[in-house]
Design a protein that fits this description.
Number of helices: 2
CATH topology of the largest domain: Methylamine Dehydrogenase, Chain H
Number of strands: 36
CATH architecture of the largest domain: 7 Propeller
Number of domains: 2
CATH superfamily of the largest domain: YVTN repeat-like/Quinoprotein amine dehydrogenase
Largest sheet: 4 strands, antiparallel
Structural class: mainly beta
Shape: globular
CATH class of the largest domain: Mainly Beta
Helix content: under 10%
Length: about 425
């Protein structure tokens, strides 16, 4: 028996040396007793993560221990197509039963129909922007709710299959809403869906699978898109122009963000498939799939400390972000043209948010957070820093819900912005 165990140890050691791979990086978790269709993660009040799983025909499940155990929420007997969590609001898209909203981590839900049109309640995507809720449908365009899902108003043409909705700050206190309609193109609205502009110049075939946005550190955003049968594309001008990013193994099907780090899930349609990571605004990508049994990854989400995915082979897997992302704070080498402090994102936020800022020259920098009475409650940066574009993740688990202000000081330059914490 001892000789058999020794043989196995030596065998695994030799395989590791020969392949350079470790099977301990991705850890298989448990999953609900149902097929998983989507995942959403959001920081909870104790510094951990609430992980939600939307299923095929069995509603939404919740895990508060990173996938070790799952409990059914108050939403049952529904095919959940998409989930999004922001602050205290959880929004679910269903296949035929409209939109469901929860403000108590899924304990109770309000389910509403969007339209009396026969097929108008097949919802394909959802998004949250402050108190505005958006729902993209399979046959009837995009709907807006300003009363937490009680009533809905159509706010776009009757595009077919709105398969992606994303919201981003526009740098002037407002928001941009981006939408993708299958076979029609990508669109931008700066007025909550009242008017739309097509923004897909340079994207192939006008067929985009998914979008995501990331603050670029200078007041704007980087917009990423994945088109059918191809890699990712980047726009730095809100979709006016697009360029292809660095080469990724596989066909990109899903994005997930951790600060300015971008993860993509890919399938094996054209290439290896799996998960890749970029920390340089998509200029280059690193495969981080080692240990995954399946190469088709189209469900992916990021929590407080881990990234989660689902594959048809093996179910839900997780991996520590710290294994792949070595620092909470980072900077890009490009020297910015001006001093700038971005609006934190997301905002409002629940515990964790990202702040970006730009320094045109080297000097002492202070970034601090204050309450409404002007009392300092957190120091995020207080040191000499080189010129560059920086980002830092702020965890507010020790603060109470409310309005706060964060101030950046570099020499005689000062900029202050407001953030909203909603636990």
């Amino acid at each position: 028996m001892k000789n058999s165990r020794l043989f196995l140890v030596l065998l695994y050691g030799m395989l590791f040396l020969l392949t350079g791979k470790s099977w301990a990086q991705w850890v298989q978790t448990n999953e609900p007793h149902a097929d998983v269709a989507c995942l959403a993660a959001y920081p909870n009040k104790t510094g951990g993560t609430n992980l939600f799983a939307g299923t095929v025909g069995n509603g939404v499940f919740l895990s508060t221990d990173n996938g070790t155990s799952w409990t059914p929420t108050g939403l049952k007997d529904n095919y959940i197509v998409a989930l999004v969590a922001n602050g205290t609001t959880l929004l679910a898209a269903t296949d035929g039963n409209g939109v469901c909203v929860s403000t108590d981590n899924g304990t109770t839900w309000t389910q509403t129909m969007l339209n009396t049109y026969t097929n108008g309640n097949y919802v394909s995507s959802v998004a949250i922007s402050g108190t505005n809720l958006f729902a993209g449908t399979l046959y009837n365009g995009i709907f807006l709710s300003t009363d937490n899902g009680t009533t809905w108003t159509q706010t776009s043409p009757k595009w077919a299959y709105v398969n992606s909705l994303v919201v981003s700050p526009n740098g002037t206190g407002g928001t941009n809403l981006f939408a993708v309609a299958k076979g029609t193109g990508a669109f931008l609205s700066t007025d909550n869906g009242t008017n739309w502009t097509e923004v897909d110049n340079g994207l192939p075939w006008n067929y985009v699978n998914t979008l995501t946005v990331s603050p670029n550190g200078t007041g704007g955003t980087n917009l990423f898109a994945a088109a059918n049968g191809s890699n990712a594309f980047l726009s730095t001008d809100n979709g006016t122009n697009w360029i292809k990013t660095g080469t990724i193994n596989g066909n990109v099907s899903v994005f997930a963000l951790s600060g300015k780090n971008i993860f993509v899930g890919t399938d094996s349609f054209s290439g290896q498939g799996g998960v890749s990571l970029s920390s340089d605004n998509s200029a280059s990508w690193t495969d981080v799939s080692t240990g995954l049994p399946g190469t088709d990854v189209n469900i992916l989400t990021v929590g407080s400390t881990d990234i989660f995915l689902w594959t048809a082979i093996g179910g839900i897997y997780k991996r520590s972000l710290s294994e792949m992302i070595t620092a909470v704070k980072g900077n890009e080498n490009q020297i910015p043209a001006k001093f700038w402090l971005d609006q934190n994102y997301p905002n409002p936020f629940n515990l964790s948010t990202t702040i970006n800022y730009s320094l045109p020259k080297t000097g002492h920098v202070a970034l601090k957070v204050y309450d409404v009475l002007g009392k300092e409650v957190a120091t995020l940066v207080n040191e000499k820093e080189s010129s560059g574009n920086y980002y830092i993740q702020f965890n507010a688990n020790k603060l109470a819900s409310g309005i706060y202000f964060y101030r950046l000081i570099a020499g005689n330059l000062v900029m202050t912005k407001k953030l909203i914490l909603m636990k």
